Amino acid sequence: MGDKPRFKAFVGLLFLSVSFIQTMGCTRNSSDPSSVVTVYSSRADHLIKPIFDLYQERTGQEVRFLTDSEGPLMERLKAEGANSPADLFLTVDAGNLWKAAEEGLLRPIQSKKLEQAIPAHLRDPENQWFGLSLRARTILYSPERVSPSDLSTYEALADEAWAGRLCMRTSRKVYNQSLVAALIAHHGQERAEQIVGAWVRNLATEVFPNDTDLIRAIAAGQCDVGIANSYYFGRLLRDQPDFPVRLFWASLENSGTHLNVSGAGVTRHAKNPEGAQALLEWLTEPEAQKAFAELNLEYPIVTEVARDPIVEGWGSFQGDLLNLRSLGELQTQAVQLMDRVQYR
Ligand code: FE
């Protein structure tokens, strides 16, 4: 017990000398939170490290990052509260971005640059999160058993013609919750429920844990069509250019292909909000956009940026113009709807 005050005094002295050293010298001392940008990312290391390295090379800004799944990262942000070292939260799917905003983990920022670079439907109307790359969830099919002329909309996969021929990923994945939310936004609950219920009746097999297994099942003849994000197909093509599956640009009735984003927002308790905003703005520069989209074979959000040849090979599509925030707002309804029709 008696040692405690002395210990405290020692720590105080140490602290003073550390601050002193900081004032003395480096402008970018890494123990000063305002000189570093810290990112919590649910995108995998190999998809973001090259981008942050490039940023550091271009600007000298040190970026630290921590990767995990979005759930644990959001829990962590909540638990850390004002003590969180995170300045920027980066994740995929508007459903997750919306949830982070809804739970008070992000802050609105004013940026003309972001508003100009990112189409309005691909960012939060309250400026708490911004799409950085575009992903399209569309129809994949077997060219041996399906003619592209048989394909049209997501809704048409509810037709009896597809009975026993459809593959779907689990409804637990936010990608499908967002897709069903888009159906609700366009058609209302009742019609959306009819469509999703018919998809479930048309299933050829149990639902899949991920998109890659689903696409492989089409190749293996377990089913003829399925719905997946295009980049998963791109990865398979990168390894095997003659992979026996094709991509069809599905559209929602009276609209376009179902879109989603990966994106980011400045955290509520950012120690370096200016640094986080600067990084966010840089991510919309053509050089960053190209790298960010290409690493995962997604689409740049800035349209004039060139695409990867694999992605280019799929041709162009019209995207749905629904503001992605709706996907979050309708998420609970979508999950309940999928439960009702026993979409596992
Ligand atoms: Fe994914």
Description:
By secondary structure, the protein is of the alpha/beta class. The chain folds into 2 domains: 33-134 and 260-308, Periplasmic binding protein-like II (D-Maltodextrin-Binding Protein, domain 2); 136-258 and 318-340, 3-Layer(aba) Sandwich (D-Maltodextrin-Binding Protein, domain 2). It is 44% helix and 15% strand. It is built from 13 helices and 9 strands. The protein has helices at residues 3-24, 45-59, 70-80, 94-102, 112-117, 174-202, 211-219, 230-239, 273-282, 286-295, 309-312, 325-329, 331-340; strands at 36-41, 62-67, 88-92, 130-141, 166-167, 225-229, 246-248, 258-266, 299-300. Helix 6 runs parallel beside helix 13.
CATH topology (fold) name of the largest domain: D-Maltodextrin-Binding Protein, domain 2
Q: Name the average pLDDT.
A: 91
Give the strand content: 5-15%
Outline the biggest β-sheet.
9 strands, mixed
* Small ligands present: fe (iii) ion
Order of helices and strands: HEHEHEHHEEHHEHEEHHEHHH
Over the alpha carbons, how many angstroms does the gyration radius reach?
23 Å
Number of domains: 2
Number of helices: 13
Structural class: alpha/beta
Helix content: 40-55%
Shape: globular
CATH architecture grouping of the largest domain: 3-Layer(aba) Sandwich
Oligomer: single chain
CATH superfamily of the largest domain: Periplasmic binding protein-like II
Report the top-level CATH class of the largest domain.
Answer: Alpha Beta
Number of strands: 9
How many angstroms separate the termini?
59 Å
The low-pLDDT segments are: 1-29
